[in-house]
Amino acid sequence: MTLDDRGRRAAQNLRQAVDEAPLLLMEQGIPGGRIPGRQSRLLSFAGAFAAVVLLVGVTLVQVDLFSPDRGTPTTSDTFPVNTVTTEAVTSTTEAPATTVTVPPTQPPGTTPTTEARDDVPPALTITYPENGAEVNEESLRFEGTTEPGAVVAAGPYAAKVSDDGRWSIVLLLNPGGNLASFTSTDAAGNVTEASVSVTYSAPAPPKEEPPEVAFTAHNKWGSCSESPPYDEYYGTGKPGTRVNIVSAYGSGSTTVAGSGEWYVKAFFAEAPPGKTFEVKAKDEFGNKVYFEFTSLVEK
Amino acid sequence: MQRADRGIVTLPERFESFYQREFRCVVGLAYALSGSRWAAEDLAQEAFIAAHRKWDRIGEYDSPGAWVRRVVANMAVSLYRKRVSEARAMARVAMQRQEVLPGLDPEDDEFWAEVRALPKRQAQAIALHYLEDRPIAEVADILDCSPSTAKVHLHKGRVRLAERLKTRPGDGT
Asked: From first to last of its 299 residues, what are the pLDDT tens digits of chain A?
C-alpha cells in the first residue's frame, strides 16, 4: 500500500468519523459545583458554539416591546419562529418577576396507566437575565435552574444542565426586543415552559466606508547591489488600510493614502548575496501579490 | 453589498449557509491536525465565531472557507505542539494520559500522528491534500503562501511521511 492509498483511506475514515459525530452533543451537561479554570473555558467555548449554531434557527422571537399588544410576537425575517403560547407571553409581560412558569403540557399520545407516574412538572426558572433587561452585546448567556436530570432547550438546541439542575445557553439577540422561550422536559415527559424578554441595543452603525479601491502591487527593481539591499513597492488599495511587504530576509509596511495609492521601500538587510527569494505584498483583506528579489551585494 | 465579477453580479453568501456547509469539514481538519476530537470542535467553533464577527468583510472574500481553514490549521498545529509539551511534562511525573482519536482504527491513528509530527507547514499541506483533496493553488491560498512554496511543503511532507511510515509515496495525485 502506497502513502497515497493510506492517506486517502485515513482521510476517508476521519471524515466519516466527523460526519457521524453528533457535534451538537457538545451541549450536554457538565458536572455541577464550581467550575474552575479549565472547565470554565470549556463552558465558554461551548457556549460560543451555541451562539453560532443558533444563527441557523433560533427560538428567539422578535417582538415590539413598545407595542400595546406585547403578547403577540411578530415574526422575524431572519429566524424561524418557535411556537409560543399566548399564555406564556402574556405572563411574561405582566409579571414583575424575572421568570415565568407555565403549567405542564401533557405529551400527545400518552395513555393513562395504572402504574404510579410522575405528573409533577419540572421546575423551570430563568435566573439571568432579568425580565425586560437591556443589553449591549449581541450574544447573551441565559441561565437558570430546573429539576436535576431534566432537559432544557431553546427550540431544537439543548442547554447545558449540570447535575444540580443549573442550566445555561448562549443565544444571539436581534436588535430591539427579543423574547427567549425555554422548555424543560423531565424523564416522564412533563414539560414546563418559561420565557424572558430582553432588549438588545445594537451599537451605532459604523461610519461610511471610504470608496473601495482594488488592491494592486508592483515592484520597481527586483534586485539591488546597494547595501543594505532594498526594493521599492507601490500600488493601490483601500484608503487607510495597511499594506505589508513580507519576506524571510526583510519587510516593510505602510498605510494606503486617501487617494488609494501606497508606496513603501523595503530593506532586505539579511538577504544572502546572490540568492533569489520570495517577497509578498499583502493587504488586510488577504489579497496578495508575489515578487522575487535578488541581493547583488558583494560579500 | 454586491460584488461585480466579470460582469456577473453576485451576492455574498449568508453566514448560516456557509457555516452549515463548511463546519464539519473544518472540524475534520482541526481533528487531523490537533489530534483531539474535543479540541477540534472547539477550534472550529472559535474560527467560525471569529468569521461571524467579521462576516461583513470575510463574506466578501472569494473563499471564506480558506480563511477559516487558515485560522483553524494554525490554531490546531499550535495546540498540538502545546499538548505534546504538556504531555511530556506530565510523563515526567508518571501522569501522562494517551489520547486516542475516537472512531479511528490504529493504522489511521498512526498516520495522523505522523502527519502531526511533521513541521507545521508540511503537516498543514498534507492534511489539506489528503483530507480535502485540494489542488495546490487552494492549499497555497489557505497556507497564505505561493503555489510553488506550497508544492515544496507538500513534496517534503510526503517524502518524510513515507519514510516514517515505511511506505512508498505513491503517484502524488
From this structure: 788 888 989 999 888 888 776 554 333 322 222 122 233 333 333 444 444 444 333 334 333 333 333 333 322 322 322 322 222 222 333 333 333 333 444 444 444 445 566 788 899 999 999 988 998 888 888 899 999 988 888 776 677 788 899 998 888 787 888 888 888 888 888 888 898 888 888 777 766 665 678 899 999 888 888 888 999 999 999 888 899 999 989 899 999 988 889 999 999 988 888 888 889 999 988 888 999 999 888 76
Which domains, from first to last, does chain B contain? 10-165 (1.20.140.160)
Instruction: Mark which residues 80-99 of B lie under 8 Å from A by CB.
Output: none
Report ipTM for this prediction: 0.78
Bridge partners for A137 per DSSP: none
Residue range(s) occupied by CATH 2.60.40.230 in chain A: 216-295
Find out if CATH 2.60.40.10 is the number for domain A26-106+121-200.
yes
* Model pTM score: 0.43
Hey, are the CB atoms on A17 and B102 less than 8 Å from each other?
yes
Closest Cβ–Cβ partner in B45, B67, B104 for A17? B104
Q: What are phi and psi of A247, to 5 degrees?
A: -155, 175
Which residue bears the cell 414583575?
A: A96
Cell digits of residue A11: 482521510
Q: Which residues in chain B have their CB less than 8 angstroms from residue A5's CB?
A: 170
B114 touches chain A (CB under 8 A): no
Domain A216-295 class, CATH top level:
mainly beta
Dig out the grid coordinates for A207 from the structure: 461610519
